[in-house]
Amino acid sequence: MSRKMLYMLLVVTTMFWGASFAVVKMAMEDLTPAQLLFLRCIFSAAIFFVILFRVPKERRMKNMKDYAYTAYLAFIGITGYLIIQYTGLKYTSTVNASLLVGIAPIVVAIYSVVVYKEKMSKIKTIGLFVCIMGIALTITKGDLTKVTIGKNLFGDMCMIINGFMLAAFSIGAKRILKKYDSLVVVAYMYILGTIMMIPVVTVPNPLSPIPIINKIGSISIWTYMSGLYLAIPCSVFGFYIWYKAIDEIGATQTSVFNYINPLIAAIISVMYFNENLTAFTFIGGVCIIVGVFLNNAENLLQGNWPKRIFLRKRKAYT
């Protein structure tokens, strides 16, 4: 795959992910967050099972320790992560959700300082404070007196927890990705995640008051299509392209494309949900994106990424 094609597919992938916030919000008119997640998981797992069947045996997981660790990753990266995300989306705007989830790189940077005693450079420190300021503006909308313990704040807090879980997943996944191909790991994660979700959606509980089996006939075609959208473009295609890009151009350069997510989410939320994009939300969003970018800036500059792209294009035309 050429670099140009890979960059185009990365843009498409992040657009799919940006639009997924709106798709989830609409699909939850029929299903609870846990039930919608199960729909996504079962469609994804079916496709990944076929993919695994075609993977040579020597490339599949070999011992119970790896299965157990992958189940842990499935919880913090899929089942627990997405239940919290979908729950948060019920109570906050799609714009806030997409912005607050994006703080994961900042959390990873803080973790590296606390656990690995890495020194935080001036530019990363500035990025951290700019990002924190952006989070504060996004949640408070510029007025601390209007912040109350209610549904909107609960939704925003869910998304911040999401950012921490995504950071934990990003750190934890490195270990297993050294042993197995990324697509194989994601496939096992979705299969194990689906197994985890079966008791959650089949036995009445607060996450699924009515067993999903009793709702199959009343679920709209749109909701089924939403499940397929979340499974095929967002999970199977999205993860394949994302990890392919990490292998080809590196994690830091790949992460830059994540900045497209909030833009797509904002456009859709304003156009289809009539959400009010306030000046403070906009400024807060810009601060979060700039803060995360500053956190990655040194790695990008060390790799001379902009320069290499320019030289590659120049060479192509000579």
UniProtKB/TrEMBL annotation:
Indicate how the chain sits in the lipid bilayer: Multi-pass membrane protein
Q: Where is the EamA domain?
A: 7-139, 154-296
Looking at the Swiss-Prot or TrEMBL record, what is one Pfam family this protein matches?
Answer: EamA
Q: Name one GO cellular component term.
A: plasma membrane
SUPFAM superfamilies noted in UniProt: Multidrug resistance efflux transporter EmrE
Localization of this protein: Cell membrane
Q: Give the superkingdom in one word.
A: Bacteria
Similarity section: Belongs to the EamA transporter family.
In its UniProt entry, what is this protein called? EamA domain-containing protein
Which organism does this record belong to?
Anaeromicrobium sediminis
